[in-house]
Structures are given as structure tokens and as C-alpha cells.
Design the sequence.
């Protein structure tokens, strides 16, 4: 059986050819599906990164506002303490004025009715 190089090529389908072609096709399909999964995962990761950046920005803003409120609260507390001290002084002065006016009324009540001080 010698092979003649001029004989026509004979195309034969056997089980090995079918198995290899089906396996190759399945591999291509699986590769395409995996690429879609990877693409979707990357898109979700980018979306999550943007969301995390937005959350970080909001948190930084909230921290800044909280610090500003704490400074404001300290100023309000200081002003309140100063106001309370001033109010205590006014209350003490009113007590003195009331005592003086009470004594003056008592003096006027004790004086005879025709005498002027």
C-alpha cells in the first residue's frame, strides 16, 4: 500500500473528530461566558468604588460639620456661663436695691407726717 501523492484527499468524520470539535466549541462558549462574568464583576467593582468614594466624601463632610458644631457648642457654653455670671451679679444688685428700698420705706413709715428728710 503505497500512498500516491496525487490521490484525492478523503474527508472522514469519526468519533474523535466530533469530540474534539465539540470540546473546542464548548471551550469557546465557556470562555465567552467567563469574559462576560469578569466584565460584570469589574463594572460592579467600579460602581462600588464610586459608591465608597461618595460615602467617604459624605463622611468627611459630616465629620467637618460635627467639629464645627462642637466648636459652636463650646462657644455657646462659654457665652452661657458668662451670661449666668452676669445674671448672678444683677440678682445680687437687685437684692441690695430691694434691701435699701425696704429700709427707706421703713424709715419713711417711722417719721412723723409733717417732717421732710
Sequence:
Amino acid at each position: 500500500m503505497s500512498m500516491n501523492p496525487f490521490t484525492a484527499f478523503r474527508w472522514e468524520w469519526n468519533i474523535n473528530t466530533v469530540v474534539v470539535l465539540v470540546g473546542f466549541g464548548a471551550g469557546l462558549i465557556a470562555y465567552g461566558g467567563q469574559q462576560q462574568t469578569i466584565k460584570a464583576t469589574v463594572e460592579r467593582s467600579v460602581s462600588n468604588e464610586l459608591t465608597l468614594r461618595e460615602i467617604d466624601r459624605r463622611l468627611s463632610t459630616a465629620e467637618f460639620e460635627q467639629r464645627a458644631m462642637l466648636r459652636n457648642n463650646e462657644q455657646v457654653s462659654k457665652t452661657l456661663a458668662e451670661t449666668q455670671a452676669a445674671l448672678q451679679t444683677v440678682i445680687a444688685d437687685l437684692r441690695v436695691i430691694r434691701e435699701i428700698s425696704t429700709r427707706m420705706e421703713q424709715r419713711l413709715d417711722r417719721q412723723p407726717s409733717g417732717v421732710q428728710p
The CA atoms of residues 92 and 98 lie 10 Å apart. The two ends are 160 Å apart (CA to CA). The chain has a mean pLDDT of 88. The first helix runs from residue 15 to 110.
